[in-house]
Design brief:
The complex is a heterodimer of chains A (about 300) and B (about 270). In chain A, about 70% of the residues lie in helices and about 0% in strands. With about 300 residues, chain A is mainly α. In chain A, strands 1-2 form a two-stranded antiparallel ribbon. Chain A starts with a helix and ends in a 7-residue tail after the last helix. Chain B is mainly alpha-helical. Chain B has helices spanning about 5-30, 35-40, 55-60, 65-95, 100-115, 115-130, 135-145, 150-160, 165-170, 175-190, 190-205, 210-215, 225-235, 240-260, 260-270. In chain B, helix 1 (about 5-30) packs across helix 14 and helix 9 (about 165-170) packs antiparallel against helix 10 (about 175-190). The relative contact order of chain B is 0.13. The chains are: A mainly alpha (about 300), B mainly alpha (about 270). The interface between A and B is large, with 91 and 91 residues.
Chain lengths: ~300, ~270
């Protein structure tokens, strides 16, 4: 093949490469890059969609940080929700995984059942749990009544509403996270446990000194995924409580939605979106710099 | 493991399984109860007489068939979009050499981290300018333009595992890239394509945010949006609401039970639910 011909082939493959990638390139410019640029611009504007955006500098940010009570309320709610849910989901799904990681009779069925709640999401999930949490006729309070415990009004009380959404979240996502933990647990070399058992190490010792350090990478990544998921909580609160009672479930994204699609205050909503993005990025970077560095990834490829 | 320990382990496994199934059982039981039993003061699992009529009523109170048709139309077109355009793009990232490819791939990975809230407001504005609000376009077109970069990533990773010898042999025989993509890559990538299809199915069947923002007329509603609207209006019709939820869940349950292994494989690589 002459050099000339190979150059032609290269150019041809170059063209073909762009052609094959065109659907994504077009989508990237149209549905990601341009919206991102617009979103930055809107965050410095007063904009209600009907009239053209009007530049107002940092006013939206100033308003959110110093004037809007709901903004800080939503930040606090989201923080509380995250702090409560992340450890519970991690521990819960690790527990599920450790129960079904080793071979036993009917293990496939057990795993299927553990995973099943994960396919219920969004509206159906919320409708089912609204009914489960019904203060007088729902299953949970009727069950508590059988035990002689008066159940709280759950979603109808500011003290229990966030806890209720967290509990539902564990049911709905535990099985999905479990599968990743099963893969992680099975990758831990057997001999580590065997030698620990010979040394007479108990269950707790094995968990703290073998399982958790060995799961390091998986545990760390799932924690980050879980934090990001919690920062973005929306659907459950929108469907079950609309942010109530007394704004106790007004999460960040719910407030953002209200600003954008009820008040049509697109400027403030865009500013909120950017602050969320920066907060997410900051938390991720800090975690990678502090905890992430100390994790050793040996034992898995 | 000693025998006693094994029995204890099994007991723990199955009692937890029972606890996790409770909401399903309660949903089914409630959907078959007459109103006075739904609001009974004590717990009752088996309705005295199962009321299948609740299901007929569910179909009467909400145009379930119309909403199912809308949801299926959107979901099917989205799945096709992800499969067709996603696999083309993935092929280009996995097998073609073009200028800036690796840089663009980094950009693709970066877009996976971008929270959807950042783009939703401008997207609403753009779709409004295009007169796409209250049509299915905003829900379908992004799928054809690779709106879910994760699927491209998943397919590309799979394409990379296909041995070069297979495609090189075809090239020697004079096959072009499109032929190789169509006749070699796609048939060999069935498991990855199935995983994408299943996740896309769950994603769009249950999607509620997109329809909430972009659809207005009730005749264009999806099941999720319809169920939400009905639930907001009829907060105490629990048996009807449970019947509706079951109807909406059935297809996803069926897909899950028949395609379990793709779920597990997909999740092991993604780390999230659909």
């Amino acid at each position: 093949m002459s050099r000339h011909a190979s150059g032609r082939f290269e150019r041809q493959e170059n063209r073909l490469g762009y052609l094959f990638a065109a659907p994504w390139l077009v989508g990237f410019f149209g549905f990601t890059l341009i919206p991102v640029v617009l979103s930055v611009y809107y965050s410095f504007c007063r904009y209600d969609v009907l009239r053209p955006p009007m530049y107002i500098g940092l006013e939206n940010y100033r308003y959110l940080l110093t004037e809007s009570g709901n903004f800080w309320k939503s930040v606090w709610n989201t923080f509380y929700f995250t702090a409560l849910r992340v450890p519970l989901v991690i521990v819960g799904s690790l527990l599920l995984a450790s129960l079904v990681s080793k071979p036993m009779k009917g293990i496939g069925i057990a795993r299927t059942i553990y995973y099943m709640p994960s396919i219920v999401s969004g509206v159906a999930l919320s409708v089912i749990w609204l009914w489960m949490y019904n203060p007088s006729h729902g299953l949970i309070n009727q069950g508590l009544a059988l035990l002689g415990v008066p159940g709280p009004p759950w979603l109808e009380s500011p003290e229990w509403s966030k806890e209720a959404i967290v509990l539902m979240g564990i049911w709905s996502i535990g099985g999905g996270r479990m599968i990743i933990f099963i893969a992680g647990l099975n990758a831990i070399p057997r001999h580590l446990y065997e030698s620990a058992e010979l040394d007479g190490a108990g269950w707790w010792h094995r968990l703290v000194h073998i399982t958790i350090p060995q799961l390091g990478g998986v545990l760390f990544l799932l924690t980050i995924v879980e934090i990001v998921t919690c920062f973005q909580v929306f659907t459950e609160a929108y469907l079950m409580t609309r942010g109530g009672p007394e704004n106790s479930t007004l999460f960040y994204n719910l407030e953002l939605y209200f600003k954008a699609f009820q008040d049509y205050d697109m400027g403030v909503a865009s500013a909120m979106a950017w602050m969320l993005f920066v907060a997410t990025l900051a938390v991720t970077v800090v975690l990678f710099q502090t905890v992430g560095r100390r994790i050793h990834y040996e034992g898995r490829n | 493991m000693p025998r006693a320990q094994r029995a204890l382990h099994a007991a723990a496994v199955w009692s937890l399984a029972a606890v996790l199934l409770i909401p399903f059982a309660w949903m089914l039981s409630s959907s078959l109860k007459p109103p006075d039993e739904v609001f009974a003061d004590s717990m009752r699992w088996i309705p005295t007489e199962p009321r299948w009529d609740n299901y007929r009523k569910a179909f009467e109170e909400m145009p379930i068939l119309l909403y199912t048709r809308n949801t299926m139309l959107i979901t099917t077109l989205c799945i096709l979009g992800y499969l067709v355009s996603g696999s083309l793009v993935a092929y280009s990232f996995a097998r073609l050499r073009w200028k800036g490819r690796d840089a663009w791939f980094m950009v693709l990975l970066a877009t996976m981290m971008l929270p959807p809230q950042v783009t939703i407001v401008p997207l609403f504005v753009i779709f409004r300018k295009l007169h796409w609000i209250d049509t299915f376009m905003p829900l379908i077109v992004p799928a054809w333009l690779s709106g879910w970069p994760f699927f491209i990533f998943l397919l590309r990773q799979f394409f990379l595992t296909i041995p070069h010898e297979l495609t090189e042999a075809a090239r020697v025989d004079g096959a072009g890239h499109f032929t190789i993509y169509l006749r070699i890559m796609l048939p060999l990538s069935r498991p990855a394509l199935a995983t994408v299809a299943i996740f896309a199915f769950l994603l769009h069947w249950n999607d509620f945010f997109g329809p909430l923002i972009f659809l207005a007329q009730e005749s264009r509603f999806t099941l999720a949006l319809g169920l939400m609207t009905y639930a907001a209006k009829h907060q105490s019709e629990w048996s009807i609401l449970m019947a509706m939820s079951i109807v909406m869940l059935l297809p996803t349950l069926a897909v899950f039970l028949f395609c379990q292994r793709y779920f597990v494989e997909g999740i092991a690589t993604t780390g999230s639910k659909g």
